[in-house]
Amino acid sequence: ELGSYDCYMMKEIEEQPAVMRKIVSAYTTENGQVAIDERIISSLLASDRIYIIACGTSWHAGLIGKNLLEKLAEIPTEVHLSSEFGYHTPLLSEKPFFIYLSQSGETADSRQVLVQTNKWAYPSLTITNVLGSTLSREASFTLPLYAGPEIAVASTKAYTAQIAVLSILASVVGRAKKIMAAETFDVASELSLAAHQMDTLLTKQGKYQDLVEKMLKQTRNAFFIGRGADYSVSLEGALKLKEISYLQCEGFASGELKHGTIALIEERTPVFALITGQSTHLQTRSNLKEVESRGAATCAIVMEDLAQEGDDIILPKVHELFTPLMSVLPTQLIAYYTALMKGNNVDKPRNLAKSVTVE
Ligand code: F6R
């Protein structure tokens, strides 16, 4: 199964463009349009608020999903950690709709919430990679991720697949509601373009080994910073690096640095900045300058049209709603090459299991 790969994580990182294409074709009907089961759409149209429930990387994908659902479908969306929601349930809207995001479909923390929302008889949709999994069987509806088996403990292709499926869902609902943003967004062709651009980015892996040697060899910690979607991807990049490199690593909203975190910056502290937002790139750049002037070793990961001389990693251009599909790839590669440099087991990091079936 591994073919020419040494480990599943790299195989799964490189499968991501193909997964994007698979999702587009699986959700395209005979008339050439993307479509979602009518019953799911009517249930969503009847709801006044979406609650996304997930853990870990799936929760991070949910943060991007919120942006897609609010922009394309104009449905207010909240994203909750399963383990928090279960015991500190927020005040719910009148007609909530629950989306359970789970690669494995077996995560006990999420199931615990689903059991509760089923008791309340609220409609639910599980988006999962494993059809027939517990969360899939127990929810009202299921949408498959079509990512193929994800073997490495550190989740990669499930994250981008979740974003892709959520974007199709958001865009179909948005079109049903005649929302302008959805009507002018050709989700299938934007996803296909993203797949192509992901391929381009993934063929350029030459610099990562040097980059991590330079930035992460002599350190115990590292930071990812960004704003908006870049902040959400920063959280995911930090989690991936923690999981397999064992470095202490955090993702921060870059505007928050000056409210405390910047005290941690010392000579050579590694800071990775994600810069893909049209409305926030200048602010994040200025935050990057602030940490640089305090001695940080920095790496700027920047969308092509915002790039400047000296930026380290340039992301080929995609639709602004899909920048996370691009910016997450360097963070996955940084984690992978760091684990490799440290001689860690890339696919089976210490203390972690692929699916967490206890609360
Ligand atoms: C991170 C990771 C975990 C999972 C989390 C949820 O790389 O693998 O954070 O994302 O345990 O798992 P699923 O998506 O199976 O519910």
Describe the structure.
- Helix content is 45%, strand content 15%.
- The protein has helices at residues 8-14, 16-26, 38-45, 56-72, 82-85, 108-119, 134-138, 157-176, 180-183, 187-202, 208-216, 229-245, 281-293, 323-341; strands spanning 49-54, 77-81, 96-102, 124-128, 141-144, 221-226, 248-253, 270-275, 297-303, 313-315.
- The strands form 2 sheets. It has a 5-stranded parallel β-sheet, sandwiched between helices. The chain has a 5-stranded parallel β-sheet with strand order 7-6-8-9-10, with helices on both faces.
- The longest helix has 20 residues, at 157-176.
- It is globular.
Helix content: 40-55%
The hetero compounds bound to this protein are:
fructose -6-phosphate
Query: Which radius of gyration do the C-alpha atoms yield?
Result: 20 Å
Strand percentage: 15-25%
Q: Please, how many helices?
A: 14
What's the SSE pattern?
A: HHHEHEHEHEHEHHHHEHEEHEEH
DSSP, total strands = 10
Global shape: globular
The overall average pLDDT, rounded, is 96
Measured distance between first and last alpha carbons: 32 Å
Task: Give a short account of the largest sheet.
Answer: 5 strands, parallel
Which parts are unreliable, with pLDDT below 50 for 5 consecutive residues or more?
none
Q: What is the assembly state of the chains in this entry?
A: single chain
Secondary structure class reads alpha/beta
Please list the strands of the largest sheet in the order they lie side by side.
2-1-3-4-5
